[in-house]
Amino acid sequence: MPANLLTDGFVQIAIFVALTVLVALATWWKVRGSRPAHDGSGKDVFLAGGGLSWLFVAGSITLTNLSTDQLVGMNGNQMLLLAWWEIAGFFGLLILAYVFVPLYYRHRCTTVTELLERRYGGTSIRTLISGLFLFGNVVIYLPASIYSGGLFMQSLFGGDVPILVFATVLALISAAYTMLGGLRAVAVMDTFSGVGVLGLALLIVVLALAAVDFDIVSGMPIERLTMIGGDDSPIPWHTLLTGMVFIQIFYWSTNQNITQKAMAAPSVEEARKGVLAAAAIRILIVPPIVVIPGVVAYKLFGDIGDAAYGRLVAEVLPGWLAGAFAAMVAAAVITTFSAVLNSTVALYSVDFHDKFVGKVADHWRLAAVVSVIVTAIAIFLVPVFQSADSIINLLQQLNGLFSMPILSAFVAGLLFRNVAAAAAIFGVLWGFSIYALYTFVWNPAGVITLHYIHFMVFVLASSVIAALLFNRIALARRAEYVGLAALRSETR
Asked: How far is CA 1 from the centre of its chain?
């Protein structure tokens, strides 16, 4: 190997290691200097003792979502159309800020499932929803995050090292953050690394455009540039008017992985400020960084799928800066994995262990044990995602297994009175079954060819109807519609 390539590689790795250590030390210093004494309570471990300022709420929400799932996955589609996921996310965060944050704080929730328990007056619905969240986190979110991170690292540093090796290293570091620092450490690291991730990602957009003389239009197929998706595109335009709305409400407002950060502020006002700051970042900064590099990569390299972002970064960034960006992306993967892992441990500890095994005396100790087990499962599942054509499309499609059924429980519980927990459970199981049949049987066989985003609306509506019918027919209870007006008065 030529000496200059060896030197460039050494510089890349040295900068990568130095910045990774610097972020870790800065996080340790901030957490060490600001946290109260550990008491081992659920609030201490899972809600940072209720002490996150709006800045850290915003940083944690942003980086929990913005990881290589978005940078690699969305750019891997190599079309501008995928920006709609992030644009629509802005409105989902507004709903979180003004509708759900007041509800969570009024009911003193540690997990979103506690809100359901209090609305329905029973623990069974809470247990079911927690189980679905745990399934989604362990089987989908956690392995996908380290797979996409491993893919990026492999694309940037070369293909000699298997993706699984990179993924394993990222997972182990992430688990260490969760076990040693809890949500407080994750949120602080999110914020520190978020500044670097967003700044360098915007620089990559500029350098990528400069590489094609700021012309991404000439010679490009129209489907790579349009924001109006056709019926055969990942996001047909008409889905923006149907399922896209409800997907965003679920993800940003009822998903434990996101809402946990908003619950960790000292007050509703501080939490809302953080959520609104995250919404501003979502609409102003995130859309260009998750689509423009992919489109430029298509113009430079052709259709190369999920490898597009890593290859473009390796092409347009100088060696030393590529190492710096790799460190920031690694931090994003680590904090995303850590945040989801922390949410997973919270759901298990509060909703399962406390109820079915025994009262938890020290959540730190239990968190360590559960973190090790869940991390091992996530690493084991990484090869499953390597066979996917597009990781982001696969993630969005699989999310429907639990997103709309879970959302139906919130809809029935918040908009109606006198609905039994058993009825909500029936609705959730109905939705899960219908979407599973659609995904694995009806759609592949051509029986139902409706786009999955449209089908999610059917799943949501039919799940709510199924719950109300079961409530009336099987349980002889008449549900009373209280509507949005009652919900608005409750959030004041």
From this structure: 40
Euclidean distance between CA atoms 382 and 163, whole angstroms: 9
pLDDT higher than 80, residue 267: yes
Domains of the chain from N-terminus onward: 3-385 (1.20.1730.10), 400-492 (no CATH)
The answer to whether residues 185 and 51 touch, using CB atoms and an 8 Å cutoff, is no
Contact 415, 481 (CB under 8 A): yes
Q: At what angle do helices 319-348 and 54-65 cross, to 10 degrees?
A: 100
> What long-range pairs does 322-325 form, CB within 8 A, spacing at least 24?
322/12, 322/156, 323/11, 323/12, 323/13, 323/14, 323/15, 323/16, 323/19, 324/15, 324/16, 324/19, 324/196, 324/200, 325/200, 325/204
CA–CA distance, 428 with 401 (Å, rounded to integer): 10
Whether residue 45 has pLDDT greater than 80: no
Which letter, b or e, does each residue of 25-43 get, where b requires 16 or more Cβ atoms within 10 Å of its Cβ? eebeebbeeebeeeeebbb
Q: What is the pLDDT of residue 55?
A: 87
Question: Which CA distances in Å does 387 have to 147, 160, 174, 394?
Answer: 11, 19, 24, 10
As a whole number of angstroms, the distance between CA 307 and CA 201 comes to 16
Of the candidates 334, 471, 435, 379, which has an alpha carbon nearest to the alpha carbon of residue 132? Answer: 435
Residue 64 confidence (pLDDT)? 77
Residue pair 316/109 in contact by the 8 Å Cβ criterion: no
Strands 416-417 and 480-481, sheet pairing: antiparallel
Measured CA to CA, the distance from residue 210 to residue 197 in angstroms comes to 20
- Per-residue pLDDT reduced to its tens digit, 146-178: 888 888 778 766 667 888 898 998 898 888 877
* Joined tokens for residue 146: 């380290």
pLDDT over 90 (residue 330): no
Tokens (6 digits) for 21? 């250590």
Q: Residue 308 is encoded by which pair of tokens?
A: 């597009």
Give the chain's mean pLDDT.
84
Instruction: Tell me the HSE value of 57 on the side-chain side, using a 13 A CA sphere.
Output: 30
Tokens linked to 200: 């360098």
Tell me what the mean pLDDT of segment 174-194 comes to: 72
Residue 418: left if φ>0, alpha if ψ -120 to 50, beta else—which one? Answer: left
- Following DSSP, what letter does each residue of 81-141 receive, concatenated? GGHHHHHHHHHHHHHIIIIIHHHHHHTT-SSHHHHHHHHHT-SHHHHHHHHHHHHHIIIII
Q: Is pLDDT of 2 > 50?
A: no
Backbone angles phi, psi at 447, to 5 degrees: -70, -45
pTM: 0.84
Q: Report helix, strand or coil for 377.
A: helix
The two three-digit tokens of residue 436, written as one number: 């599973």
